[in-house]
Amino acid sequence: TAKATDKSNGLEDTPTQFVGKGEADTQRSPPFSSPRHKKSGSLRLNGASKEQKAPGLLVEDICDKDGERLTSLAWDDKPKPQRTQTELAPAGIGASMLIPRNFIQKTDRMLSIHFAPNSVPLKRRLQTLMVLSHTLSIALFLTAFFLLCAIPLFWPLLFPYTIYVLLSAAPHSGTLSHRSPFLRSLPIWSLFASYFPARLHRSARLEPTRKYIFGYHPHGIISHGAFATFATEACGFSTLFPGITNTLLTLDSNFRVPFYRDYALAMGLASVSRESCENILSKGGPNGEGMGRAITIVIGGARESLDAQPRSHLRLVLKRRKGFVKLAIRTGADLVPVLAFGENELYEQVTSDSHPFVHKFQLMVKKCMGFTIPLFHARGVFNYDVGLMPYRRPLNVVVGRPVKVVQARKGEKVDEAYVDEIHAAYVEELERIWEEWKEVFGVEKGVELKIVE
After folding, report:
1. CA pair distance 303, 103, nearest whole angstrom
2. Which residues, 6+ apart, have CB-to-CB distance to 203 below 8 Å?
3. How far apart are the C-alpha atoms of 453 and 450, rounded to whole Å?
4. 3-state DSSP call for residue 72?
5. What is the mean pLDDT of residues 152-174?
6. Residue 120, Cβ neighbours under 10 Å: how many?
7. What does pLDDT average to over the chain?
8. Cβ contacts of residue 10 below 8 Å, gap of 6+?
9. Tally of CA atoms within 13 A in the half-sphere of 138 that contains its CB
10. What is residue 70's predicted lDDT score, i.e. its pLDDT?
11. Taking 60 as the threshold, does the pLDDT of residue 334 lie above it?
12. CB 399, CB 70: distance < 8 Å
C-alpha cells in the first residue's frame, strides 16, 4: 500500500498551518463516569503510519484491523513540562503569594466543581478563547450593532446598512463573492480546532472535475466539527481535497443578523435554501457550471440536535429526509457521507425521557420557528463542570466514499425509485464508516448507529 506522502495522494506540497493534537499534559474535562472499553485506536495497534512532512506537521495513515485506510493531517505537538507554582511566581515573591493549593482543593470539594489550575499554558487559554468567541459570535455581533445604534453619529451609516442586510441576495446567489480565503486560513482557527482536538480524515480522493454534496452527521448541539473542518482550513480540507471549493450551509435567518452575516459570508458560509444550493452547484468552477464546487449540509438539522446525547446510541434523523438526494439528482452532484465521531460527546443535554413536556415544547418551537432550543451544559471558562463551553473531547470527522449520481435531464421529473436507490446507498456508506471506525475512535461498547424518522 502506498504511503500517505506519495504524490498519488495529492499531499506532496503540504502547507504548515494546520492543527494538532493540543497539549496532553494539562488537566482536561472530567472523564465519563461510565467505564470505557480499551480503545483499539492507538496508532500502533491500528497500523497507523507517520511520516514527517514539515516542521511539526505529520501526514498520517490510520488503518483498522481490516486494512481500511484513512488519510489526515496533524501536528506533532510534544507537551512541554509544566512548571510548579513556585516557578510561576515572579522573582522575589514566594509561592505563598499565589492561591494556596489546599484552599482550591477545599473549595472544589464544597462546591463539587473542578476549577482550572493556575498553571494552564497560554496556548490552551487561547484555544478556550477562540471556542468561546465562536460560541458567542452571534451575541457579540448583535451587541456591537446595538451599541452603535445608541450613538446618533452612526445612524446615517447603520440605516442603509440595515436595509442592505434585509434585501441582499449574497447568501443564496451562489457567486461566493464575499468568501475570504485569507480569513479562512488564519492561524487562529488552528487554536479553535486543536481545542478538542478536531481532525479531518479522508477515505478516498475526490475528483475536482465533479461536484459534491457532503452530508454531515450528526448535528450535535452546535456542529463544532462541521465549522472546524469545512468552514476553515484548520484541518487541511484544501490539502486533502485539492481543487474542491466547499461551502458550509446554515440557516437563512443567520444572514439577517447585522455584522454577523458579513463575518459568515467571509468565512464562506451560505444559506441552506434550495435556491442557494442549486446556484452554488451550477455556477463557478472551470466550466462555469459548478464543477469543483461542493456544499456541506447538516442533514439532521435542528430536530437531530435534540437527540445529541453523550454515551448513548447515535440517532440520525435521516430515514425520511430525501430532499438532499433529489437535489443531487437535479444538479448531478455526487453524495459524500460524513460522520463525526465525538460530536455528540461535547455537551450534556436534558433527556426527553426524564422531561417529556420540555421535549414537546422544543418540538413545538422547532415546528413554528424552524429552530429549537436544546437545554444543554458542559464546562465553563475557568472550571470543568458548569458552563456552556464544550468539553475537550476528540472530534474525528471521517469523509466517506462518494456515491455516484446520474443527473436527471432538465425539466424531467425525478424518479422516486432512483431516489430511494441513492438514499439506500448513502445510508449503507454511513453504516460502513460507523462499523469500520467506531472502535478506532473510541466509541463505547454497546453504542449503535440508528437511522430514525
Report:
1. 44
2. 68, 70, 398, 399, 400, 401, 433
3. 10
4. strand
5. 94
6. 15
7. 81
8. 205, 239, 240, 242
9. 8
10. 81
11. yes
12. no
**Which of 42, 53, 78 lies closest to 3, judged by CA?**
53
Report phi then psi at 314, rounded to 5. -85, 105
Instruction: Give the H/E segment covering residue 338.
Output: strand 334-341
CA dihedral 150, 153, 156, 160 (to 10 degrees): -40
Task: Determine the residue type at 367.
Answer: K
Asked whether residue 176 carries a pLDDT value surpassing 80, the answer given is: yes
Distance from C-alpha of 204 to C-alpha of 195, rounded to nearest angstrom: 27
Residue 423 near residue 335 (C-beta atoms within 8 A): no
C-alpha cell at 161: 446598512
Rounded Cα distance, 201 and 340, in Å: 10
For the chain, give percent helix, strand, coil, nearest 5: 35, 15, 50
Rounded CA-CA distance 204/309 in Å is: 30
Placement of cell 472546524 in the chain:
228
How many percent of the chain have pLDDT more than 90? 55
Q: Which set of grid coordinates corresponds to residue 77?
A: 505537538
Are the C-beta atoms of residues 235 and 199 closer than 8 Å to each other? yes
By CB neighbour count within 10 A (0-12 exposed, 13-18 middle, 19+ buried), where does 83 fall?
Answer: exposed
- Rounded-to-integer distance, Cα 419 and Cα 327, Å: 10
Q: Are 80 and 351 in contact (CB under 8 A)?
A: no
Highest mean pLDDT, choosing among 42-51, 297-306, 323-332: 323-332
Amino acid at 280: I
Residue 278's CB is within 10 A of a number of other CB atoms, namely 17
* Locus of grid cell 472499553: 37
Q: Quick one: CA dihedral 39, 44, 48, 52, positive or negative?
A: positive
CA–CA dist 209, 216 (Å, integer) = 22
Distance (Å, whole) CA 381 – CA 378: 10
Using the structure block, give the residue that is written with the C-alpha cell 452554488: 280
Whether the Cβ atoms of residue 48 and residue 74 lie closer than 8 Å to each other: no
Q: The whole model's pTM is what?
A: 0.79
89 or 182, which is more confident? 182
DSSP-derived pairing of the beta strands 49-54 and 334-341: unpaired
What gap in Å lies between CA 390 and CA 286, rounded to an integer? 40
Distance CA 219, CA 321 (A): 14
Which residue type occupies 413? K
| 405, 332 Cβ separation under 8 angstroms | yes
Please count the residues of the chain. Answer: 453
Contacts 24+ apart (CB under 8 A), 409-414: 414/326, 414/329, 414/330
Residue 77's pLDDT is 55
DSSP string, 254-279: GGGSTTHHHHHHHTT-EE-SHHHHHH
